[in-house]
From TrEMBL:
<feature type="region of interest" description="Disordered">
    <location>
        <begin position="78"/>
        <end position="99"/>
    </location>
</feature>
<feature type="compositionally biased region" description="Low complexity">
    <location>
        <begin position="84"/>
        <end position="93"/>
    </location>
</feature>
<protein>
    <submittedName>
        <fullName>SCO5918 family protein</fullName>
    </submittedName>
</protein>
<dbReference type="InterPro" id="IPR047719">
    <property type="entry name" value="SCO5918-like"/>
</dbReference>
Length: 99
């Protein structure tokens, strides 16, 4: 499949992407991810390996679009955890002192 990532054209094939990622340890997923084989990889990590470009040169959307077109399952960034509710401080009564 022909695609453009960071203004450069690439001819990508599913089996070539799988071969390129074989033996690569997945980094922790914090944003968009893709399932290759049985592993979840960050999209930017895969993009860096298959394009041989710095991951700052392309967006996750570009790589996600290309990998989805090849038939890989891509997932959106996980939803942020809700902030824990601040504990309500219970007002304490002022101590009374008799003079």
């Amino acid at each position: 499949m022909r695609c453009v990532i960071a203004r450069f054209p690439f001819d990508l094939f599913k089996n070539e992407v799988e071969q390129a990622m074989k033996g690569i340890k997945p980094e922790p997923v914090t944003g968009e991810s893709v399932i290759i084989g049985r592993r979840h990889y960050p999209v930017k990590q895969v993009g860096e390996i298959i394009t041989r470009q710095d991951r700052r040169d392309f967006s996750a959307q570009e790589v996600t679009r290309a990998l989805s077109g090849l038939g890989f399952t891509c997932r959106a960034a996980p939803a942020p955890e809700p902030a824990p509710a601040a504990e309500q401080a219970v007002p304490q009564a002022w101590p009374t002192t008799l003079v």
